Amino acid sequence: MDGYIHSIESFGTVDGPGVRMVVFLQGCPMRCLYCHNPDTWAPAQGNVMSAPEIIRQYERNQAFYTHGGLTVTGGEPLLQVDFLLELFAMAKERGIHTCIDTSGITFHQADSAYRRKLDQLLQLTDLVLLDIKQTDSEQHRALTGHDNAGILAFAQHLKDLQIPVWVRRVIVPGLTDQAEELRALGRLIAGMPNVRAIDVLPYHTMGLEKYKALDLPYPLDGVAAATAAEAARARNLILTALREARKNSASGTPQRPE
C-alpha cells in the first residue's frame, strides 16, 4: 500500500510528545481561512511512498526518537486510512509511539466499511491530536467551509474508545478568540476525560508566501499574527471554563445552556 506524501519532517517537536518524525500526507477537504499549507489540499498528488519506506527512514534516526515517535498529519491524514493501517501496524510491531493529527472531518462521511477500518486504525494509535476549530456549527462552516457535526461526533467516538487526545485550537484574532467560544470549548473538553492536554497555538502568517507561489488569494490578508500573550489568555479562558464545568458536574449544579 502506497501513500501520497507531501513532505517529511525528521525532527519535529510540536506534533506530539518528544522528538518525532512527522509525515505530512497529501489531500484535505477543508479550506480553513488560516490554513498555512494550501499545497497539501489536492489529493492523489505529492511523493508516492510505501509504509516500509517510511519505517526505514524512521529507523535511520531512531536514536533521536527515544521519547518521541511517529506523527502523521496533513492535509487530512484520515483520507488515507488504508495506508495508515499498514504504516501503524508496522510501527506498533517495532514499539513506535503513533500519533494522528486530524481535524476529524472524515468521520461523518464514512460508510460502515470505512468506520471498521478507522476503528482498526485507532486501536493502533497511541494519541490523537484533535483540532477543534470552532464549537459553533455555523461559525465552523464560515471558518472552514464545513459544519462540525461529524467532528464533534468523532470527538465523542474517541471518548467512547478511550483514545488519548490532545485538543488543539489555533487562535486567530477576531475569528477564533471570542471569550464565549473559548468558554464553550472548555465546557466541551470538560466532558472528555480522555483529553490529556490542550494546545493553544497562535495564528501566524508564514503561509502567505505559499499562497503567492500558488497564485491564490490569501484569505486573511491584513490579519495580524496572534501573540503569545493572546494565546495564553485564550488558554486560560478554556481552562477556567473546563474547571468550572467539572466542579459544577461534581456538585450536581445544572450547566448553563450554550
Summary keywords:
alpha/beta, globular, 258 residues, TIM Barrel
Radius of gyration: 18 Å
CATH homologous superfamily title: Aldolase class I
The CATH architecture can be given as Alpha-Beta Barrel
Unreliable segments of 5+ consecutive residues: none
Helix and strand content put the structural class at: alpha/beta
Count of helix runs: 8
Number of domains: 1
Q: List how many beta strands DSSP finds.
A: 8
Question: Overall mean pLDDT score?
Answer: 95
**CATH first level: which class?**
Alpha Beta
The SSE order reads EEEHEHEHEHHEHEHH
Numbering strands along the chain, what is their spatial order in the largest sheet? Answer: 3-1-2-4-5-6-7-8
Major sheet summary line? 8 strands, mixed
Summarize the structure.
Helices cover 38% and strands 20% of the residues. It has eight helices and eight strands. Helix 1 crosses helix 2, helix 2 (81-93) packs parallel to helix 3 (112-123) and helix 6 crosses helix 8.
Can you give a write-up of this model?
The structure is a single chain. The chain has 258 residues and is an alpha/beta fold. The protein is built from eight helices and eight strands; from the N terminus they run βββαβαβαβααβαβαα. The protein has a single domain, classed as Aldolase class I (TIM Barrel, Alpha-Beta Barrel). It has helices at 51-60, 81-93, 112-123, 137-144, 149-161, 179-190, 208-213, 228-251, and strands at residues 2-12, 20-25, 47-50, 69-73, 98-102, 127-131, 165-171, 195-202. Helix 6 (179-190) links the parallel strand 7 (165-171) and strand 8 (195-202). Helix 2 packs parallel to helix 3 and helix 6 (179-190) crosses helix 8. The longest helix has 24 residues, at 228-251. The mean pLDDT is 95.
